[in-house]
Design goal:
The protein is α/β, with parallel strands linked by helices. The protein contains ten helices and eight strands. The protein has two domains: 153 residues, NAD(P)-binding Rossmann-like Domain (Rossmann fold), CATH 3.40.50.720; 95 residues, N-(1-d-carboxylethyl)-l-norvaline Dehydrogenase, domain 2 (Orthogonal Bundle), CATH 1.10.1040.20. Keywords: Oxidoreductase.
Length: 257
């Protein structure tokens, strides 16, 4: 399959590298030509920074840009690639954003957090596909199966629920790690001492119902500890963390265990 990418960020980079070797990556198009060239060099593709330079002899175009840019991109792509299957990689953007402009539209969404510095384990990464046409759905499903053992045909509403849940499970939890590091850094305490706790918490959440694994002073209703923690944060002039501590404690206290 001949595939081109719109975008040169983390999702585009990881996905293009994963597909390279299995398929031919034709072109990388990005407003930043240096970033486009950097990714293009990795997958032996051509680079461009203007849609007028897009190559039309491709089987699939993957839009891997910010959610707010997808609508603008499909408007530029449709006139030059009216018969080509075009997909986006967003978890929170509906298929209709593409189908309003383009008939052969689809979604190819990897439920994973990507970093340039880390290797992605594609075999265990859930991939979600959706398409306006049955033939394209089959095409995307087969493409996904070459990367992952976990491929699902989910609609836009289901995918959005996963994306929202992922924000809590990934982005918010990582910010909790960041807040924890801020707290111990202020007292010159080694953050790595928390690593076993972090890993055990993640393991329990993936092997059991997280609700049943909840522990801590808020779950126990230990008011003395809760007040002491909030007082410590206030004394350190971390009212931002104190507010988050209170909101999360309230949520735990109000949850039925």
């Amino acid at each position: 399959m001949r595939i081109s990418f719109i975008g040169s960020g983390r999702v585009a980079t990881k996905l293009a590298q994963a597909l390279y070797g299995k398929h031919q990556i034709i072109q990388i198009i990005s407003p930043n030509i240096n970033n486009a060239k950097k990714l293009a060099d990795l997958v032996h593709a051509d680079a461009a920074d203007d849609f007028s330079d897009i190559q039309s002899d491709v089987d699939l175009v993957v839009i891997a840009v910010s959610d707010q840019a997808i609508s603008d991109v499909i408007q530029k792509l449709h006139p030059v690639l009216p018969e080509t299957c075009i997909v986006h990689t967003s978890g929170s953007t509906g298929l209709d954003v593409l189908t309003k402009q383009h008939a052969r539209s689809g979604v190819f969404y990897p439920l994973q957090t990507f970093s340039f510095e880390r290797v992605t384990e594609w075999e265990n990464t859930p991939l979600f596909v959706e398409a306006a046409e049955r033939d394209d759905l089959n095409l995307l499903t087969e493409l996904a199966k070459k990367l992952s053992q976990r491929v699902y045909q989910y609609n836009s509403a289901q995918r959005l629920s996963l994306h929202l849940a992922a924000v809590f499970a990934c982005n918010f939890s990582n910010y909790c790690y960041d807040m924890a590091k801020q707290i111990v850094d202020a007292k010159q305490v080694d953050f790595s001492l928390l690593y076993p706790l972090i890993l055990e918490t993640a393991n329990k959440a993936t092997q059991n119902d997280p609700r049943l694994m909840q522990t801590g002073p808020a779950m126990r209703g230990d008011l003395n500890i809760l007040q002491m923690h909030k007082a410590m944060l206030s004394a350190d002039r971390r009212e931002d963390l104190a507010e988050i501590y209170q909101l999360m404690s309230d949520g735990i206290e109000n949850r039925q265990y």
